[in-house]
Amino acid sequence: MFDKIFKLCRPRELSSYVISVIEETIDIAMADHEDGTVGLRLAAAFDLLASIEYYHSVANRGWTYCSEEPQMMLYPYTNTCPRCIGKSKFKYAKANKPESGQIGMVTTELLCQMLETVFKKNGRNINVYKASEPIDAVIYDEDSKKMIIAEVKSAPLMTIPLAMMCEHITETVDGELIYIKHSILDNPMVKHSSIGLYFPKAEDLQESFIPLVMDWSVEKPFYTALHHLFASKPEFFHQYYKYWETAYHAYSKKERNCPLFWMTNGCGQPVPRPDDWPRRRGSGYESVSDGKTSVGMDRTDDIKKAIYQVLKLGSEYKLDNDNIKTAIISNIHAVRHYDEYLLTLRDVIWTLDSTHVAKRAIQLDPDTPMYNLFDGILSFTYSDIRDEWIEEIFNFGG
What we know:
Layout: H1 2-6, E1 9-10, H2 16-30, H3 38-55, E2 63-66, E3 72-75, H4 82-85, H5 100-121, E4 126-131, E5 137-141, E6 146-152, E7 162-165, E8 170-173, E9 176-179, E10 183-185, E11 196-199, E12 208-211, H6 221-232, H7 236-253, H8 300-317, E13 324-329, H9 338-341, E14 349-350, E15 371-372, E16 376-378, E17 384-385, H10 388-393
Parallel strand pairs: 6-13, 13-16
Antiparallel strand pairs: 1-4, 2-3, 2-10, 3-7, 4-5, 5-6, 7-11, 8-9, 11-12, 14-15, 16-17
């Protein structure tokens, strides 16, 4: 059965340089942590790296001009101006999040590489592979000869917007020069201006703009920029993590009064909704970020699909092989929907009954094997595990 599964495995498409930056990010995330925070810091590192991937699709169109002092052009990833939301004001902006199909490919690749790096950093001889349908990822332990076949559901919590300083934007109305207020505009100077990361003011966190050193001649310039940022600003990841942790708790508790809540995916409709907030083409109003973009495995449709997929994988590949395990894997657990969709299923076990009549275990042959529906529901932030080997390798408690 292992041979059949290995035939579905595919090589990752990350360059050696990108892998080196991923490894550097993980090293920084896992260093100098407080007890119990390693998993959260790894989840934050996933978001940072997913953001880097998103930035490579930055376009000239879709920028938001904010006329607050000092003026900025911003490239946000939810439908509200990041600067204005830091002042508790909703100003509609165009979200630049990639399409869901692209997100799935990018985040699965990234999560596989991160897991393999963490396993090896922890002294485990474990390889992690992308796979073809019906399997998303394969985790194979060379020493114990055990394997996880997994359904992957991963998506970042938030993406810090890109930004650049600019002058006042003006236009002529009836022969008079006027200043434009908040607007969605094209930006023809993306590669010819100082671009950086914008962090809004939130609670006790200060507003900041962090310039990036860009080399647009390389294939993945934002990875190079991140490497340079780590070298020139050693405290950067700590700053990033503080923002990410604040956003994570705001998302978990639906703290709508926290500005960073409105930069998280799946945050919903603005509350209170401004009078000038735009309507959708059909009915209702635009969201800041709808449920289709939810975090990690927290999208309900994804949870339902994953439950079926793990059962299907088990029925095809686990029979009579105790070394093959099944799991759902994500960067972040189902923060809001765990109790509703997974809690009552986490301890389900199953078997096959060809007689079609057994209603109690005693009616089955004593040698009938039993299988966990989930050997693991796994993420950096929280895991439910029913297997000792998986418990050992997915110990991110720090």
